[in-house]
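Entry:
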Amino acid sequence: MLPAERHRQILNLLREQGMVQIVDLSERFQVSEMTIHRDLERLAADGLLRKVRGGAAPLATAVSPTPLSSDVAPHCLMCHKKPRRQTQVILHLADGSQQHACCPHCGLMSLSCSNLTVTMVLVTDFLYGRTLTAQSATYLIDPAITICCTPTTLAFECHEDALRFQTGFGGQIHTLQSAVSYLHETMRLK
C-alpha cells in the first residue's frame, strides 16, 4: 500500500474512532510502528491531526494523551479505582477535558447518573485492548467472572467475540443503549 493511501485510511479511522493508536495501525497495515510514527508525524505537520502519546487524536477533539500505564492513570470517576489498560473507559467532555472510568460498568453508569456533558466515549476491547467508540462496541454484562466492578461489564469490538465469551462464561449481550438502561435499573435503589 502506498503511503498516501495509508494516510487516507488513517484519517478515516480517526474520524470513525475518535482516536487511533500506533500499535493498532501497525497491525492493521502490516507495517512497522516506526512507519506509522512517521505517517502520524507527517499528517500532524500537515495540520490534519494531533499526535498524542502512543497515537493520534483529531484536531477538533485533541486532548491530553490517554495514559498507557496504570502508574499515571487517573482515578475512576465513579468508584475511584485506578483504570487498567484492559478495561478503561475515557469520556471526552464538551469543555475538552477527559474523565476516566476503570471499566465499562462505571463508564456506562456515569452516562446515566452524572451531569457531565459527554461528547464522546471510548471503551477498550476486553480481548485485544483496542480503543473503540462506545456506540460500536458489544457489551457482555454479568458473566460468571469478576474483572473489576460488579456486575462485570465487558466491551468487545466484535459481536462474535462477545458471543463466544458468553458461551464460556454466561452473561447477557447488550448494545450501548440497552447496557446503559440495564445497569441503571440494576444499580437503582428500590
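The radius of gyration is 17 Å.
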